[in-house]
Amino acid sequence: MTIASNQGINDAGGHRVPQNGVPGGRLLPIGGFHPASFNDFPGRVAAVIFTRGCNFRCPWCHNVELIEPAGPAGLSDYDPEAVIARLAARKGKLGGVVISGGEPTLHPELLPFCRQLRELGLAVKVDSNGSRPEVLERLINAGAVDYLAMDIKAPLAKYDRLAGVKVDPEAIRKSIALIAAAGIDHQFRTTAVDSLLTAADLEQIRRLVPDGSPHKIQQFRPRRSANKED
């Protein structure tokens, strides 16, 4: 999905809302916003919010502009309160909101933001790399999410290479188990990069997925990625 630029975010009355901080608290860093998607939240028309900052450096990443916590010079991010206002104005047209990234679980503002969306009557889906199971557990226990999607990047023995950083394999195992046992809609996903994952690797990944949990393998399609040679 192409990440929309920061244009046209208005409040419920149609007025432009500048990006200002809210006194006394930090805001969820939103680097992209797509007002409507028909394929990112199964069974729902949903807006998609892209948070900024990621702790992985996957060589095939399509959202490289969101990896760093701060955006490129001259690019302003979205005011979360303005995004909430726009979603509130479109409640009758949207069935949910997807929070993707970047990696949303890096941000302590994620849980209260999800609660705000739920208060609007919108279902919430969070996409995660599974590196922070304690955050996923808080979201689940708080009843703040309706759907969790996790990318399983590789067999555990190859995770560091595929994620581009050192990864705790037990965190990945714990996130998979938490999501599978949460009692909410969920999906595990793997991007099949032919130059990095073999058929045997994909079979090992499948074995990480608990019985009864959906697992989608999507073929990598070269575009702009973190690996400049792609």
Question: Could you characterize what this model shows?
Answer:
- With about 230 residues, this protein is α/β, with parallel strands linked by helices.
- It has one domain (about 30-220): Aldolase class I (TIM Barrel).
- About 25% of the residues lie in helices and about 20% in strands.
- The chain is built from 6 helices and 7 strands.
- It has helices at about 80-90, 110-120, 135-140, 160-165, 170-180, 200-210, and strands at about 30-35, 45-50, 95-100, 125-130, 145-150, 185-190, 215-220.
- The protein has a 7-stranded mixed beta sheet with strand order 1-2-3-4-5-6-7.
- The longest helix is centred in the last third of the chain and has 13 residues, at about 170-180.
- It is globular and about 50 Å long.
- The relative contact order is 0.15.
- Residues about 5-25 and about 225-230 have low confidence and may be disordered.
